[in-house]
Amino acid sequence: MDCREYILTFPMVEECQPFDEDIVVYKICSRWFATIIFSRPDTIAVKCNPDRAILLRDEYSAITPAWHFNKRHWNDLNVRMLPDDVVRRELRHSYFTVIRKNVAPKSLREEILLIASGNGLYDDAILPE
To answer: In whole angstroms, what is the distance from residue 15 CA to residue 52 CA?
Structure first.
């Protein structure tokens, strides 16, 4: 699966390399939701609901606490070992988690969510409350 190609289909995503040529960061409204480190080509780091992060690590050996990130909020996905649908689901979850928790003001957050749903993008990984 080409994670970069998939991520760039998300509305309003920014791709940048703020550190060096080895690291690519994906943002929504200047907030990180995924990173790829080229020296670790099988792995992508994604933001995650903290409770969900633990459940995923228990369910999949290919999902681990993210290297060099807050282990409570970030997971590493080994994209070669996981089914494509799981990788896509977690990329979407990361994108929507950042929108819901980190994008302000509320009107911008709601606008992005409306645009995403209009493009058929949704978060199918939300935990029941």
So the answer is: 25
